[in-house]
């Protein structure tokens, strides 16, 4: 991909994020919003806003990048011809969305066979957008345009760690997370994709999660890596297919956390 095409796909990604914002915001904190449950024995909500946002992003792609593949949470996979696939989560954190908290986000990644190359984590209500890949690592929002860069923390005792759910995953996975968290300075919960954005922005040091799908993590991977961080699975391998994920601000703090998680 030459520089002109890189600039084009960044522009397309931003256009998709704009379209998703427009589709989602009329429903946020609306008294008429309802959620369907996608699971029988658990709670995995989906709303009209999720579907409308993915449809809006797919419409942009049909006009701007019709040869690319698409993998979206709500409408599945559409095969492409270009070798590139857009991986979309229209609302990552629908539980947060229906609760009125502004920690959900729109996730957009452009990936090839090796994983994500470009990512956007967008928070429409706050008006923050984190972009990483193809030489770009920046955030736009209420504080203006800012460069992304991860922290240099090299001790778990000085680290801030996040995960979305206190139970993390299985009992074994929770034990792995807690083995790290008890060594850290501060543990926080419930941020969904926004935690990964905070890591890329240099606010926190670690995010540890389990049970993720590809569309949950590909955009955060691209943004974090562009900012200087590292994202792997709990064994140090690629994480772009989801599962157990360790995101770290730098190689030193990643190695310390990985030493603990690899035994889980």
Automatic annotation (TrEMBL):
Keywords: Amino-acid biosynthesis, Histidine biosynthesis, Hydrolase, Magnesium, Metal-binding. Coiled coil: none annotated. SUPFAM superfamilies: Carbohydrate phosphatase. Its cofactor is Mg(2+). Its EC number is 3.1.3.15. Mg(2+) binds at residues 73, 89, 91-92, 216. It comes from the Bacteria. The keyword Metal-binding applies. It is an enzyme of class 3 (hydrolase). It catalyses: L-histidinol phosphate + H2O = L-histidinol + phosphate. Pathway: Amino-acid biosynthesis; L-histidine biosynthesis; L-histidine from 5-phospho-alpha-D-ribose 1-diphosphate: step 8/9. It holds the Pfam family Inositol_P. This is Histidinol-phosphatase. Belongs to the inositol monophosphatase superfamily. One of its GO terms (biological process) is L-histidine biosynthetic process.
